[in-house]
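Standup notes
- DV: blocked on the single-chain target, sequence here:
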Amino acid sequence: MRIAYTADLHGNLSDYRALCEFAALHKADVVVVGGDLLPHAMRRDDALTVQRAFVEHSLAPLLRAFRAQHPTIAVYLLPGNDDWAAAYAAVEDLAAEELAYPLHEQVYRMDPDLWIAGYACVPPTPFSIKDFERCDERRMQPFSFDHALTSRSGVIQPLQHQEFEALPSIAEDLAALAGRSNPRRTVYVCHTPPADTPLDLMSNRRHVGSRALRAFIEQYQPPLTLHGHIHEAPSLSGTYVTRIGATWCINPGRDQRRFHGVLIDFTDGMVRMEHTVYGTQPE
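- DV (later): unblocked, structure below
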């Protein structure tokens, strides 16, 4: 199984084209984008229109052309905390044409003994959109909800603290996801990186990943987990890959100058990878 992986494209059509070219050049079996698919859009009067228009007028035509040329390559798309849920519904509609498969809280069989599963939510951030944010574990850390918003009703509206706390936690959602396939034979695509790793390091040197996800990886030991969210982490830490027990964890990172993608070969439980910027993984 050969996977072409990237994350945090934020509606950059040039990077989407680079991903398609990367996958075709290296004869990938699967293409995966691990969160933050759509353009950054925060104005309540047009944010949903902006993100939906990108899917309809830019992403869908690109994927139609890609599928016409490479009909055997499956494309999986996971939203992130910068994507409005009401706009991501347009991404879900791409599945009707088999252009791409929505990955949030979904599980697909990639071959007879290998699955792929996705989870978009990250622990609470300072940013306003909260559609794909959750409490990491059941206890809520101190956090301001002065500008918290949600679009799950189909329109953007304020999100109250009590509403947010009532949602399932990341830990609870991941536990439910684990019951839908064999975790030791599942590639998990989670927008948040696991906590206290080279993949969740911010420029202020703080680690901001999910403790619940790290505990999930430690417990279930999947062969491979794919992440994003913290664009600068690989540059700051010096690596795009780490291991938690037997699990390989990857965050390709992102910058404005170069496409960041990872080609991953998964064969008989062995994982080999090469980054478009940082090269091969350490031995």
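- Follow-up: The first helix runs from residue 13 to 25.
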